[in-house]
Amino acid sequence: QAFASAARCGGIWFVQVVHYPLCAAVTGDAALRYSREHRRRTPWVVVPLMLVEFATAAWLAAAPPPEIGRGAALAGLGLVCLLGLSTGLVQMPLHSQLGRHGHDHATIGRLVGTNWCRTILWTARAVLAVWMLAGAR
Q: How confident is the model over 32-89, as pLDDT tens digits?
């Protein structure tokens, strides 16, 4: 769980600071191709980590070690669920819009702006997962 959360945290910071802002530099027909390739390639990297993160968070919430406690385990699962909701309800529709229309400063701006929520949540999630790992020793 700590590995998956830390990997997703590092990934989301890269996306927030480098990848999403650079989307604005891709214009014209290249923007459509870029967006479609992004949507095709990204799941191969993020979905396995997200599944591991969710499965381990659910497992810990169902049977938390005494050193961690149910509260921390439930908080971890809650963060994972919030991240899933944000991804599915906000970021994925924005990516779909870019995949249909290509370069759009307003959509890219919304993508960067709304992704700060995920960046903060995944940072908190990684810190919590590392804290739980240290406490379980």
A: 888 888 889 999 999 999 999 999 999 999 999 999 999 999 999 999 999 999 999 9
pLDDT tens-digit series, residues 84-106:
999 999 999 999 998 888 778 89
Distance of CA 98 to the CA centre of its chain: 18
Long-range pairs, 93-101, Cβ under 8 A, ≥24: 95/35, 95/38, 95/39, 96/39, 98/23, 98/31, 98/35, 99/32, 99/35, 99/36, 99/39, 101/32
The answer to whether 95 touches 101, Cβ cutoff 8 Å, is: no
